[in-house]
Write a structure and sequence with these properties.
alpha/beta, Rossmann fold, 9-stranded mixed β-sheet, 6-stranded parallel β-sheet, globular, binds adenosine-5'-diphosphate
Length: 486
């Protein structure tokens, strides 16, 4: 059994703002089948503390970055957690990174240095009877974990850093360095980043292994176009960089059992999706039509190419399509989509906000999901789409390129297509893809086969969990029977 401590700033079902939470929440369960025991270290935000009742206090600090703190261990939300109960850092309204006004907390440097520092202490054997062999850090919020190990008193515990999105880097002023409890030489050897302190950069420089969430993204981030100024460093660390595609929680996302659906279905009863489609059109005030019902479930940001959706709404409607949008984010993009809905009453509907249940109903009722991302480390909504027979229409980048098989003629002929891809990421190319989707939808049998194939494609965590287990085992110098290579 390999003992791993996952260090994450969010984990489903306790606290979630995006895909990182899904991954952090699903990995421990998936790894159990591969002889890996994974605990998760997480900040004690209000939402987490509400769940963390009845746990065991396993450590106390009189001063954890300017206030007292305790570590509480227990099984909460189905996860084996160690929660950092530090009210001065985490007991606040709002989200994990920002206040109710949407602004980042000014002391985020401290809040997430604390997360990483505590992980480093656990790696040093802080808690009697618990010695992780690997610290697996996620994103910039845990980026200092490898640095605390590398520049700390012992680097015996190995470190893995997973990049879920290279754009979020945790870049702070150099003035905080003296507060981080790192030796002075760590600054120039690894933590310094463009004259300040870079949490993600520090992690990339110090980790024993780096992973990111798809093979294509692993290649893309080594280029200036996708490297967010870290491509040089990533190239220098290419030999320890692995692309491992995310899976999804096929228990929480199971069209046969999903309680959020009005009607459950399987790949052989795909016609039952109609009931969900009807519920969806009612909810969004969409009129009946013979055309496809397209959908968007997304953060509304430039990364997600939401401007391309707004640009193509008129085309989509003119081709007989309908559109439902669930999302929130950039005010300009939100406004553009709301204007489109106002322009096309009964044909385009929008719900602004975050609604987990509605996102399930959309995947189980819409005909296609639009994901025109400019970059996409892995992406989860196309995987949910595949599993729910909601055909993904995606840009050919990152994990979208790795998980959807484009319905080109050869793929249709060979009977392997599962969705539509387009490239380059431009409004015109996306418009062409929408056109193609409408045409394919008109060929009912072809469309149904594509839906069924998607539903049968393997989007579970199983293969990915095996790859992570391989990375851990290699770091520990262990051989594994079911070893896979990159
Ligand atoms: P990212 O993490 O970059 O936002 P992913 O596709 O990896 O993108 O993950 C997004 C996750 O958040 C998915 O689980 C998706 O269903 C969910 N999601 C995004 N927006 C919403 C929303 N408005 N309501 C419900 N779920 C949403």
């Amino acid at each position: 059994m390999i003992e791993v401590l996952s260090v994450a700033s969010e984990a489903y079902p306790l606290i979630k703002t995006g895909g990182l939470a899904d991954v952090a929440g699903a990995l421990p369960g998936a790894l159990a089948a591969h002889a890996v025991s994974m605990r998760t270290l997480i900040p004690g935000y209000r939402a987490v503390m509400k769940e963390a009742t009845g746990g065991r206090v396993v450590a106390e600090f009189s001063d954890l970055f300017d206030g007292p703190a305790r570590l509480i261990a227990g099984r909460f939300g189905g996860l084996d957690l160690i929660v950092i109960d530090a009210p001065h850092l985490y007991d606040r309204p709002g989200g994990p990174y920002s206040g109710p006004d949407g602004r980042d907390w000014p002391d985020n440097w401290k809040r997430f240095a604390a997360l990483s520092w505590v992980a480093g202490q656990l790696g040093l054997g802080l808690v009697a009877g618990y010695q992780p062999q690997i610290l697996h850090a996620h994103d910039w919020q845990a980026g200092l974990v490898p640095a605390y190990v590398k520049y700390g008193p012992s680097d015996q515990v190995k470190t893995v850093l997973t990049v879920h999105n290279l754009v979020f880097q945790g870049h702070f002023g150099s003035d905080i360095f003296g507060r981080l409890d790192l030796p002075p030489h760590a600054y120039y050897e690894g933590v310094e980043y463009y004259g300040g302190v870079g949490y993600l950069k520090a992690g990339l420089q110090a980790a024993d292994a780096i992973t990111t969430v798809s093979p294509t993204y692993a290649r893309e981030i080594r280029t200036p176009a996708f490297g967010a100024a870290l491509d040089g460093l990533l190239n220098s660390r290419a030999s320890i960089l692995h692309g491992i595609t995310n899976g999804i929680d096929v228990g929480a996302w199971d069209p046969m059992l999903d309680p959020a659906l009005v009607q459950n279905f399987t790949s052989s009863t795909i016609h039952k999706r109609r009931v969900n489609k009807l519920a969806l059109t009612e909810r969004f005030g969409i009129e009946e039509s013979d055309g496809p019902l397209f959908s968007v479930v997304s953060r509304l940001t430039g990364q997600k190419g939401i401007d391309l959706v707004a640009n193509n709404v008129d085309l989509l409607v003119s081709l007989g399509g309908r559109l439902v949008v669930l999302g929130s984010g950039d005010a300009g993009l939100e406004g553009a989509l709301q204007a489109a809905a106002a322009r096309h009453p009964g044909k385009v509907g929008m719900v602004v906000g975050y609604d987990e249940n509605l996102s399930h109903l959309i995947q189980g009722g819409a005909d296609a999901i639009l994901i025109p991302s400019r970059f996409e480390p892995c992406g989860l909504t196309q995987l949910y789409g595949l599993r729910y027979g909601c055909v993904p229409v995606v840009s050919r980048v990152g994990g979208l390129a790795d998980t959807v098989i484009d319905a080109n003629e050869a793929a249709l002929e060979a009977g392997v297509a599962t969705g539509l891809q387009f490239s380059p990421v431009s409004s015109d190319a996306f418009g062409d893809a929408i056109h193609r989707a409408v045409t394919l939808y008109g060929h009912e049998e072809v469309w149904k086969k594509m839906q069924r194939r998607g539903m049968k494609s393997n989007v579970s965590w199983d293969l990915s969990a095996q790859r992570y287990a391989d990375v851990y085992a290699a770091l520990l110098g262990q051989e594994r029977d079911d070893h896979l290579t990159d």
